[in-house]
Amino acid sequence: MNLQQPNANECTQSANRSRSVAPQSGICTRCIDGCRGNCEVFKASFRGRELLYPGLYGTITAGADKEYPIDYSHLNILGYALGAEGLPRGQVGNPDNTFFPMVNTETSYGTKNKVKMRLPIFTGALGSTDVARNNWEHFAAGAAIVGITLVCGENVCGIDPALERNKPGKVTRSPDMERRVEQYRRYYDGYGDLIVQLNVEDTRLGVAEYAVEKLGVECIELKWGQGAKCIGGEIQVNSLDRARQLQERGYLVTPDPSHKDNQAAFRDKALKHFERHSRLGFVDQKSFMDGVAHLRKIGAKRVTLKTGAYPMRELAMAVKWASDAKLDLLTIDGAGGGTGMSPWRMMCEWGIPTFYLQCMTQELCDKLRAKKKFVPDIAFAGGFSTEDHVFKVLAMGSPYTRAVCMGRALMIPGMVGKNIGNWIANNDLPKTVSEYGTTKEEIFIGYESIVDRFGREETDKMPLGAIAMYCFCNKLQTGLQQLMAGARKFSLPSISRSDLIALTEEAAKISGISHVMDAYREEAMEIIGAK
Q1: pLDDT (0 to 100) of residue 1
Q2: Which of 36, 183, 222, 475 is least crowded, fewest Cβ atoms below 10 Å from its Cβ?
């Protein structure tokens, strides 16, 4: 089984010269003195720390390619030839009421102030990376017209070049955060929500108070971590002045831009960028509960928590404290995902993979429910991109899991749509696109559907990345409806763990999902008369 080969990867723009590679080290079996490259050891010999990160930063998203022993491909979805659940009263038993477009894909999450979404998906945290900032208008408008939640990630205010602060150092104005909120609200129609994340730096800066009290944001998400890395958020900075500015704001910036040797290396163009890092946070239950109470006191209608691919101890803390605080949503991000900037080897080799993490979460939630304790609504992130992923995650996490968080899969359409717009303007459409037409109306299959909702004048003003997100989510929704109809489940709450089978004994043992040879065995034996 090929789990993940070190020392050469497209993400680090490196490759082995030899066809034969030592599996543990990833080094060519015959490493020659005089080799002209280009493995990671070769490149790191003169570019050093640059080889920690995927490149080129700011123009890519990066996701781990490690193949885990068990993942969601070890599950299959069951279909049935009888019965139907989730249909409106009076419609059961009539085949005319069971066409797959009749499947209801709406979901909701939250306690007192629930959020409705047209699809059980929402975006990953789109924060201070260049990819998130440069494409925000496409992501924001797209999430709003689809009717799903959009997460504004950490450090947005902290890196805003036009940030204004008072003497205690709290944010009084962040034009970039204002822009992000406004661009989502422009097309918001009651489905979905805008969540603003809060990390250690954001707490110090007073981002929650600014977002809630000044901008009217209704949901704040506390962030413990993410699945792609176990250190704080990072970005690259290509300007010495910008690096000094962020250092003065209290961020860790490496290499230290105040050191003369690093300044000289930057002037010599050997050092091409600096990295801005966030602090590691520490959690304890009292501070957590006090923080949640504070957010509610300043006016947050919803408070959520995002945690990373930590071991079962930290997972239990997240589940239990979310229960005690009656949080509106707990998002659990497993290893195997990734969006913006994370150290490449860390992304591949750190943390609990999502499948295992969901199995642990299910056990913990079952124990809470057995004690008649509040179980928070759950969402999972960690490398999801297709409608069958959505079905499997919701089914395996039934009845607690309400949605799937998608990072790269929802970012890509935003970038594709933006680039198609640029290619049209420059008369430079690639054949992969021009085979469908040369105008946006011809290329985007869902364009006229959006015109029907918003009118042609308004639709013509929309970022094309938003139109692309609509098209992509239409594919997800239709595919999910087909899978659900095949399983005879016409609403999301009807999906259950019994709608899945495990294809391997190990997957069955870890997940508690019936093995393919055991699922519905008792019913089968009774029908055949062998019982």
Answers
A1: 45
A2: 36
Among 52, 69, 84, residue at a domain's last position: 52
Q: Answer with the one of 277, 310, 342 that is the final residue of a domain.
A: 277
- What lies within 8 Å, CB to CB, of 20 at 6+ separation is 28, 29, 30
Which residues are CB-contacts of 12 (< 8 A; sequence separation ≥ 6)? Answer: 40, 43, 51, 53, 54, 55, 344
Positions of E strands within 246-386: 252-254, 274-277, 302-307, 329-333, 378-381
Phi-psi category of residue 194: left, alpha or beta, with phi > 0 → left and psi -120 to 50 → alpha:
beta
Query: Can you list the alpha helix ranges (DSSP code H) found in 224-267?
Result: 240-248, 260-267
Which tokens in the block code for residue 364? 């913990």
Give the structural domain span for 251. 234-277
Residue position matching structure tokens 């500015």: 245
Mean pLDDT of 506-528: 96
Does residue 238 fall inside a structural domain?
yes
Report which secondary-structure segment, H or E, holds 235.
strand 234-237
- Residue 409 falls inside a structural domain: no
Q: How far apart are CA 120 and CA 495, in angstroms?
A: 12
- pLDDT for 487 equals 96
**Look-up: residue for tokens 């019965």?**
83
Question: Torsions phi, psi of 518, nearest 5?
Answer: -110, -20
Specify burial of residue 388 (Cβ count, 10 A radius: 0-12, 13-18, 19+).
middle
pLDDT band at 410 (very low <50, low <70, confident <90, very high): very high
Position 349, amino acid:
E
The domain total for the chain is 2
139-143, 409-413, 496-500: lowest mean pLDDT where? 409-413
Confirm whether 491 is domain-assigned: no
Angle at 300 between CA 297 and CA 301, to 5 degrees: 115
Please state, rounded to an integer, the average pLDDT across all residues of the chain: 93
Helix (H) or strand (E) holding 124: strand 121-126
Structure tokens at 91: 């419609």
Q: How far apart are CA 372 and CA 351, in angstroms?
A: 31
Contact (Cβ atoms closer than 8 angstroms) between residue 113 and residue 155: no
Of the candidates 152, 171, 151, the one whose C-alpha atom is nearest the C-alpha of residue 163 is 171
* 482 close to 494: Cβ distance less than 8 angstroms: no
If phi > 0 it is left, if psi is from -120 to 50 it is alpha, else beta; for residue 427 that is: left
